[in-house]
Amino acid sequence: MEQAAGMIDADHPTGMPIIQTSKFFLYRATFADGTAKLVGAVLRGDHEVNPVKVKNHVGAAEMELLPLEEAEAFTGAKTGFMGPVGLKEVQMLVDRSLEGAVNLTCGANRTDHHHFGLDPARDLPGCAYVDLRMAAEGDTCTRCGKGQYQAFRGIEVGQVFKLGLKYSKAMSCTFLDEQGKENPMVMGCYGIGITRTVAAAIEQNYDADGIIWPWPIAPYQIHVVCLDPGNPEVSGVASQVEKDLEGAGFEVLHDDREGMSPGAKFKDADLLGFPLRLIVGAKGLKDGIVELRDRRTKEVVKLKPEAAVAEVSAARDRIMQELETAGGR
Q1: Using one digit for the tens of pLDDT, what is the confidence trace for 133-176?
Q2: Structural fold of domain 2-130
Q3: Which of 221, 231, 265, 308 is least enclosed, having the fewest CB within 10 Å?
Q4: What dotted CATH number matches 210-325?
Q5: Domain residues of the chain, as ranges?
Q6: CB 215, CB 201: distance < 8 Å
Q7: Is the dihedral of CA 199, 203, 207, 208 positive or negative?
């Protein structure tokens, strides 16, 4: 790259701002007819490549980042020092953000060295300036030219796939149009990730103590905590309450583990995060009561054991109403 200044050692502190650096990606594009070619993508150092944009621009059926060993053999440099200059038989694409840019740094295709002074228009003959990068916070809207892009964290819980005519032609899946002509159907499909949906719900419903399950997807709705399983009276009431609740259609987890302190059981109950916790202990039963605790609000209601079904039903209705008001969280 003699025309673009020279080379600098990788260990030399250039102090170059990141907007004066570039990054390089080398892809293998495979087309519908089975042919393949190499495609290079050059972006500014602070931008990320969007492989879908690269694939769509070249019209490839499949696109893969060239495996590291192949890329190193092709460029003659280790990863981190590969660059776009001097590579033959590579379709070179440069992101539009670099149009008119000069004095960029890039890998020199020589391990431990970089070029500086890269001018894509001069040093990458035949390159095309294309929109290659991922959208980033603060980008101006491409439609109105006024609004700015804002980024938010999210979880992909479903996908939609455009299948086109690929399978309908292969399976002769057709329909008759208004003229009575037979045409292949345009197909698509979608999928919903159950485990991702659960993960998304937990991301929105937790506190420092653990999960707070939304009622509709909670593994169990009621957590019966028996504080004195060795006490026949306490264990008997806890078991009866469990039967009553299950008989009313509720899903119940009964913690009747022996040899554990109440604090340990409460900590486990918070961590598991089922919507309602019903506590049965010898101390409460002396006064003829058990306690019902809401996991989200931490509110506690004292009630008679025989009133458990009625109180739990009322709590369920309240929780579902709050859920509906909050928009289904």
Answers
A1: 999 888 888 889 899 999 888 888 888 998 989 999 999 999 99
A2: YbaK protein (3.90.960)
A3: 231
A4: 3.40.50.800
A5: 2-130, 158-194, 210-325
A6: no
A7: positive
